[in-house]
Amino acid sequence: MPKRSAGLLLYRPGPDGPEVLLVHPGGPVWAKKDEGVWSVPKGELEGDEEPRDVAAREFEEELGTRPPAGEWLDLGEVRQRGGKVVRAFATPGDLDERAVVSNTFEMEWPPHSGRRQSFPEVDRAGWFGLETARTKLLAAQVPFIERLAALVAGS
Predict the structure, then answer these.
(1) Is 152 left (phi over 0), alpha (psi -120 to 50) or beta?
(2) pLDDT of residue 9
């Protein structure tokens, strides 16, 4: 059975249409990469956890703040290249991306050094218009932008 994740895509009105909040993965592997590596804040489901509960928890862990109260739109699922199935929700809201404080993870760095270091799971967050978000996001997650655009246009 494939691993499953759930996340929450925050959106707000922008000068040229909706903007979405994306996160950049932390750690030295991703430090110099930009296009095609950003993500919806998300994390893995464990056991019989509800996707919405996981999305809320991971939002708080990766951004350092609780998700805003309000209606959540279900953006469905996508399958990433490695086989992981990601379900995303979207909700309107705003936050200061400069104030993001992420949880951390530990890894051996440099490789084969025997030395372990801690890095933030998310090293930064950013607000992007939908067109820019399409280039920043992991390719498999781009359908979430398309689905959000269709839902927001219809409201």
Answers:
(1) alpha
(2) 98
137 in Cβ contact with 36 (< 8 Å): yes
Residue 44 CB contacts under 8 Å (≥ 6 apart), including other chains: 3, 4, 5, 54
Report the 10 Å Cβ neighbour count for 101: 11
The tally of domains found in the chain comes to: 1
CA 8 vs CA 26, 32, 80, 118: distances in Å: 18, 25, 16, 25
For 15-54, the pLDDT digits (tens) are 989 999 999 999 999 999 999 999 999 999 999 999 999 9
Domain ranges, residue 47 = 4-153
Look up residue 125 and give its two tokens: 């967050």
CATH number, domain containing residue 46? 3.90.79.10
Which amino acid is it at 66? R
Unique residue bearing structure tokens 């990601």:
86
Strand partners, 118: 106
